[in-house]
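pasting for the record
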Amino acid sequence: MDGIKQKIKRLIPFWLGKKIRGAYQKFLGLIYKGNNYYCPYCKHSFRKMLSDGERLQVIEKFKIIGSGFRHNCTCPRCYSKDRDRLIHLYFEIKSNIFTVPQKVLHIAPEAWLKELFQALPHIHYTNGVKDAESMGYYYDRRTRDLDITDLEMKDNFYDVIVCNHVLEHIPDDIKAMKEIYRVLKPGGWAVLQVPYSNVLESTYEDKTIVKLEQRAKFFGQFDHVRIYAKDYVKRLESVGFKVELFNPVNEDWGNNYIEKYGLNTKEDLFVAHKPM
């Protein structure tokens, strides 16, 4: 069913999809208006947020974080998810991205993040995704067609790269990690968030599983090709990254943001730094 939905959406041009989404978002924003939760992307407050995800057996079995059913996950106004608001919090607290000129590469750009970057005049912003032209519902014509395993950019070019829930879709994820490392400047950093399990010791992959329904059954989504595990950090380190785990649970000020932004307390943000 998910595969069919995606195919239907790809037939809808971006301009029409944007109008449909915009009208529906305004309606939901009014319905859910309140003061319990706040979205830093659209800058609106809500009495509750939308539930998101599915209750699949494999997700429950391996307790996959960043996947599965979650209450108060999705912003009713702009559709940012809990993991996206965690990224925004890292930007706010741990980075200078809002104040210092930087080159940013955004892979498979989420609309709310894309609008954030485009609104910052000091950011040199590039975004792209593979098969961009065939995905008009999601991406406008300014979105470049990029192959994450063979990036066209020169070495050591970007200060920041955001690749949010992408690597779990890529058959050769190590090659993709190497490319991200290559185009990142020394001293630069990348948000490389994925759904992951802290129950599994080793990442689970099986290249013989190719049918969409089988991938949903074994990996938790029809277009995923693996379940990342406790060894995800080691995979990133294998290409040269130094990995920082960010979770507001570990900070004195954390609870205020966790409640206000509707964050998942179990989710760490994976920030990969390229050494100088």
